[in-house]
Input
Amino acid sequence: MRRIILAALAALVTSAAAHADAIKVGVVGPFSGPFALQGKNFKAGIDAYMALSGVKVGEDDIEIIYRDVPQADPAQSKALAQELVVKEGVQYLAGFYFTPDAMAVTPLLEQANVPLVIMNAATSAIVTKSPLVVRTSFTLWQTSTPIAKVAREAGVSKIISVVSDYGPGIDAENAFKTGFEAVGGQVVEAIRMPLSTNDFSPIMQRIKDSGAEGVFAFLPSGPTTLGFVKAFNENGLKDGGVKFFAPGDLTQESDLPALGDAALGLQTTFHYSVSHDSPENKAFVEAAAKAIGNPTELSFPSVGAYDGMHVIYKMIEATGGEQNAQKAVDAVKGLSWTSPRGPVSIDPESRHITQNIYLREVSKADDGTYYNKEIQTFEKQGDPGLAALK
Amino acid sequence: MQTIFSIAVDALAYGMVLFVISIGLSVTLGLMRVVNLAHGAFAMIGGYIASYAARDLGVGYGLAVLIAVFGTIVIAIPIERLLYRRIYGRPELTQVLMTIGITFCIIGIANYVFGPTLKTIPLPPSLQGSADLGFRSIAVHRIFAIVCGLCVAAALWYAIERTAFGVRLRAAVDDAAMAAALGVRTEVIYAVSFAVAVGLAAFGGVVGAELLPVEPYYALRYMVTFLVVVSVGGAGSIPGALAACLLLGGIDTTGRYLMPEFGEFFFYLAVIAIVCVFPRGLAGRMK
Amino acid sequence: MTTATTNQAEAPLLSGRHGLGRDLAALAVILVLAVIGYLLFPNNLALLTRIMAIALLVLSLDLVTGYCGVATLGHAALFGSGAYAAGIAAVHFGITDPLLMVAAGIIGGALAGLVCGVVILRAHGLPQLVLSIALIHLFHEFANKASSWTGGSDGLAGIAPDPLFGIFAYDLWGRTAYVFAVVLLAIVFMFLRLVVRSPFGMLCRGIKEDPIRIQAMGGSPTIALLKMYVISGAVAGVGGALNAVSTQVVGLDSLSFTLSAESLVMLVLGGTGSLFGAVTGTIVFMLFEDLVSAANPFHWLTMVGALLIAVVLFAPKGLYGTVAEVLARRRGAGR
Output
């Protein structure tokens, strides 16, 4: 009996492989639930890339299969990845908004002979878990380190760090602290607040009492950043001259209309602004806005997805459509191109993206909309977080 | 000293916002005995309507609040007639299943119609900015929320304890069959109470939107907070809910000021302690 | 009429004289279902394994909610503790034998069950629900804080279970994990059938109906319920450990309010107070979720909501409970 089942199974698997006329890419992300906006941006970035670069690589059609993991859930993520590989026969896995979801998939890659292109999950360590992981997003270390320099140059020597108490928040705190102390500044206090915090007034009181000249903040983009920025203004910190520094998650473009005037003048460092001035970005924004439907919903995960697709297309070109994960990954090591965010390359050693980090300031355009205005560029930033791991 | 005052002000403001948003749940939970996990969903509908009215139609804030409250009630009436009526008096777990189902549906529809971005309700100039209290400044809309909370508390208390409707409602809750036999039209009573509860949810959703911004996942994100606050107060009791909101608001604010990194521990340990000391809530009607 | 409404479906089963025969029939049903699952979804064993891990959680919830009448929205605390116990044993202590990891999960789950039981049993009704909510948040926050042990929000990665009995490795297709899960589920299910039918199980049901009477008869409701909580913790711990073994990552989601609430929804969906109800609810909910979320990853939540509403309207005692009732009535009419 068992032999018959196995034979049937083998037949199924081989027949699935034989019928693979299209190359399938499985994308796992939060397409519903509290992070649906970010999942939507994944899809917009992917659609934009396929609209601009075609749905074929050579002779092969590219087919995208989406799977939803609404909140960080490694078990579900792994089950879906397994299903994508075994049942759908995908040759590439991509997406992944949350770190644990990506971590859960890394042990599968070698046996599945499938590369994983991470379009968001931002903890440095993921790329070390498997040689088949490539990342086209950013890490908190990468985006939070330059702001330390900015803060110091703005004349701030004593600063208080306020972050959400979870993995990325702690990464941001460490990155900033390391960077700020290296340029001679002092972090007088480091506060970690629970993710579920709704009312930030007590935190603002703490900032006030600490006597710091500036505050470094990190919260996941979304509803809480609104409360945080508003509380910062309403409790008189902005008027009191306390300077505000943060990585760009706090002022992601899709939150700006809600933040309104409250965000004006906030300085953040990030790898991508929708307003980035380049022909590549203009084409990208146009295509992505069309794909997402409502242009105000466009945000940073879309560019991670767009470049992720670029990497996957290059991998398919290099392997000629044949399934060979190691060859595919080797082909993109050192790959450099001009992304909508600016010039980027894949670091051959870490397989993480090397990119420019921009200092931006929230400004009001002539038509009354808000945007992140790029005012300074930190060129070719690698991931300092990997060095910190060692 | 100044710090203590400052924390007290924050606690009061936060507690009152919590009160305004969750008091509607106290009505359904305590007086109608329905575990209405869709309460947050109705608050969210109110927020969306107000946001749409104020931003896209350009009506004034006061009018937007009215439209939100009545619009939400209009949406809720068919839901009450078709769905809630089937679960009055049924086991709590059945009610949980039904109301979670309703919440899922509303979230899905909101995500489809309005998209996943945050929606704000523009405040009138008179509610913007900060007021100076001498030792610190506080946002004017928070003072507005405090006043709203006090008005709602007073009005509800009066309606339940002092009016003929309140007497009938309490009678219908305590013994529906007996009340019906005495000529109380329990169906009407229930429908009106439900409308009031939904209206309060919508009102709270709008007034609290500065603190809890409106987005599709609102309905589930804050559900736990509402449920905890109402139960600690003792479902169905207006003074109890008020006391619970102020107490929990105070504990939360103090905890987040003194030890932000352990804020969550503070809050939930306090909840456990309170429930153990007052197993029926601070002033509960529940058996 | 002393049996609860939810227990009516089970009543004819209980009165059956051939307890052993029915147990064997139940075992056969599970094994047949497992084989059917293997044949129907040979490429999706990971999903089926996950369903079985969650089914263990829902079974464990049924023990306290369905059989003892304890309302809880924090049951994932037991499941997550089991998962973390197994994961920490593997990552920090090098205990990578799957069976030993399950043992660690059982211990972790049972301890968490004891802690939760002591707290939750102090209140009834709505306040009890609130205690359970507070507990799950405390567990979650604790795991987040103890990130050097648990990996915090990044998850506890690097769990590498040995091949089962040193022969069957955990592979991409998930066959080993699947068989492992089926065997664990079958063993636990049979064990639970014995437990709920035992005098102790009957005592718990009695407590659900009328605790004062049980007390008057000389029973101690709190001690009995606490015992049940520990058993429930052990069962949830098996589920958690299974999850850790098959996923090789443990995330904070396994200690979340969301998972607790979902498991309660699955239980009520299937029908409380019956072991088959718990399993039915889990299978239907998770397969339905998988189906609709694959069909439309963006707007599937509405469909799940509609399913829940439909079940309340058309199958008020849960899917299994209602079917069993209809069958029982037919049989009664036929006689």
Q: What stands out?
A: Residues 221-247 of chain C form the longest helix (27 residues). Chain C touches chain A through 45 residues (CB under 8 Å). Chain C has 15 helices and no strands.
